C-alpha cells in the first residue's frame, strides 16, 4: 500500500511509481543510485554531465586534460562525457532488472550539450526512457528526443518558460512530452531558474506556480495525464497530500534530489554523506557565484564562505578621475590609472595590510582583493579551462563561434568542473562546492536517519511510499 492511494503512472511503456530520482550534477547520481531507484519501481536518473568511465579493473578513469588549447580540451571533454554516460546507462539498466525506468539528465548550458546528448542516445538505444534537461532554454531538446524516440522532460521554473518552449519548438513533438519538471527556484539544490523578476529572498508558494503550469498546458491542449513533476523541497509525501488526486493540478509526480544522497547506493563520498547529517535550517545558500550566471544552492562551507568574502573585498574603479573617484589607488595594482573614492582606497589599504595583496579586475569595473595563493589558483584554473560550459563567466570560454564570451574573465567565480569532480571523488568537502537542496537540514530532524542509519535506495523508496 502507498500513501493516500498514490497510484503508479504509465511511463516508458510500463507502470512506475510517480517518484523520480533527481539527476545530480557531476557523478552525484550514477548507475548504482539510479539503477537501484528504478529497481525499486521508480524513475532513476543517470547524470550525463561528465559521468565516470571505468578501466578493465573497474576503477574510475581520471578525466585528465592533456591537450594544449581549450578547444582541444573541450573535444576531450565531449568524448569523456559520451563514454561515461553510455557506460553509466548500461550499468544502470542491468541493475534495474526490467523494473521502473531509466532517464538521463543533461544541462543545456553545459559545454557541448547537443553532441553529448546525441552521442549518448545513439549508443544507448532502447535503454533510456527519457531525457530531463534544464539550466537554460533547451529549445532543441524535443527535436533531438524525437530523433531517438525517447521522452523529453523539460525542467522549468515558471509557466512562462514552459509556454515559450512549447510555442517555439515542443508543440511539433507533443507526443513525446513525458512530463514537465517544475523545479522550485527557492528550494531546489544545484542551479536554479530564478528570473530577474523574482526576489531570491522571497520564496513563493509552489502550488499557484504549478497550477499556472497546468493551466498553460491545458490551454495548449496537453493532456492532464502528462505529469508535472514537483522538484525542490519534497521530503514527506504527507506534506503534499492536497496535491495528489487534485483535479486542479492533474497528474503530479515528485522528484527527490537531496534524500537519495544519503543512501548505501549513493556514489558521493562518506565525508559528504556525514556532512548532510549535521546541517541546520539556513545552512544552504542561494547564491550567484556560479560561472553559469545562474543562481544556485549549495551548503555554506569554507569554500562558499571564501567566495562570499572575496566578493566583499571589492571596490569600483575608473581609468580617469570622475565623480567620486578622486584619488589614485596605490596598493594591489600596477600602474596609476585606477581611480577610486578616498574611502575605498582606505579599505583597499586595510585589505592589503591583512595579506590580501593582489587586486584583480572583474568584468564590472571593480577590483577584488585576494592573497597571492588565491590569485595563483584563480589564474591556473582559468588557464586550465576545458570548456565544460556553453558560456563560462570564470574563464570567458564559449563553446561556439569564436570561443570567447568577449567579457573579461571573472575572478569572483570559480572552476565548477574542477570543484564538482573533486568533491564527488573524495576531496575534502570543506574545500569544494557542496550542492544540496534547502530541505537538507531535515536529515538531522527526521527520525528515519537517527542512530546514523543509512537506508538502501529500496528502503528509502518504501519509506517515501508510506508518506514519510
Amount of beta strand: 15-25%
Structurally, how many domains make up the residues?
2
- Shape summary: globular
Helical content (DSSP H or I, runs of 4+): 25-40%
Rg, Å, rounded: 23 Å
List low-pLDDT spans.
Answer: none
- For the termini, the CA-CA separation is 13 Å
CATH class of the largest domain, please? Alpha Beta
CATH topology term of the largest domain: TIM Barrel
**What would you say the CATH architecture of the largest domain is?**
Alpha-Beta Barrel
Task: Please give the largest β-sheet.
Answer: 8 strands, parallel
What is the CATH superfamily label of the largest domain? Aldolase class I
Number of strands: 18
Short characterization:
With 468 residues, the chain is of the alpha/beta class. The chain has helices spanning 31-39, 70-96, 113-123, 141-148, 159-168, 206-219, 270-276, 302-312, 342-353, 372-383, 416-424, 442-445, 457-465; strands spanning 9-11, 14-16, 19-21, 43-47, 101-107, 130-134, 151-156, 180-183, 190-192, 228-231, 252-256, 284-287, 295-299, 314-316, 327-328, 339-340, 358-361, 366-370. The chain is globular and about 70 Å long.
Could you explain how this protein is built, in words?
The chain has helices spanning 31-39, 70-96, 113-123, 141-148, 159-168, 206-219, 270-276, 302-312, 342-353, 372-383, 416-424, 442-445, 457-465, and strands at residues 9-11, 14-16, 19-21, 43-47, 101-107, 130-134, 151-156, 180-183, 190-192, 228-231, 252-256, 284-287, 295-299, 314-316, 327-328, 339-340, 358-361, 366-370. The chain has 468 residues and is an alpha/beta fold. It folds into two domains: 18-280 and 443-465, Aldolase class I (TIM Barrel, Alpha-Beta Barrel); 295-431, no CATH class. The chain has an eight-stranded parallel β-sheet with strand order 3-11-10-8-7-6-5-4. A three-stranded antiparallel β-sheet has the order 9-13-12, with no helix packed on it. A three-stranded antiparallel β-sheet has the order 14-18-17. The longest helix has 27 residues, at 70-96. The two termini are 13 Å apart. 50% of the residues are buried.
